[in-house]
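S.,

Sequence below, as promised.
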Amino acid sequence: MDIRIVAGGPEEALPDLVTIAAGMDGALWCGADRGALVLAECGINMEAAFGDFDSVTDEELTVIRQSANNVYVYPPEKNETDLELCLAWAYRQKPDRIIIYGATGGRLDHSMGNIMLLASDEHLRQPVKASIVDRQNEISFFYPGNYTIHENDKRYVSFIPISEEITGITLTGFLYPLENATLKRGRTLSISNQLNSQTGNFSFSSGILMMIRSTD
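The prediction came back faster than expected:
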């Protein structure tokens, strides 16, 4: 089972949610604040919607209630963002995969907060990892290990240290391979790589690594 979350980022950064939903059989959708209105307006039924809903009108909240099986309304003065509330619910459902849309673009503090939310130990320790997807990018996070990725429409692959450094990183199947290298936070050694085959492999020994797959 997949869970797809839509946050309140600008709609121009969203992929085509209607097409995605049409191709998903059995996925659960969840809206975070204004993201729930976007889902409702797309005709996508939600299992849940979370937020203080301070970015929608009373009439729009009524539309959300008509499209969601469960609506959880919180006061604006809270410690968690609306997306964090959605994620906590999503983990409890024990899905196979979590994809988040609407988490980037617009306000930089929101984008960075959403990205760093998924880079925290609390989220990386979950049995299923969440990824952020927008019209141009796919953002994922990794603990040390060995991973395989497959060629897709996002040709550029960048590896960015979240921790101070990444040690022992090895890239095979890439245009620019690495062998047991160290990536330092703030350096650009591993930006804009590309696969040179249908699959590529990356592994590393320590640190927290962010991978961004992008199109022009």
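The longest strand covers residues 165-172.

Coffee later?
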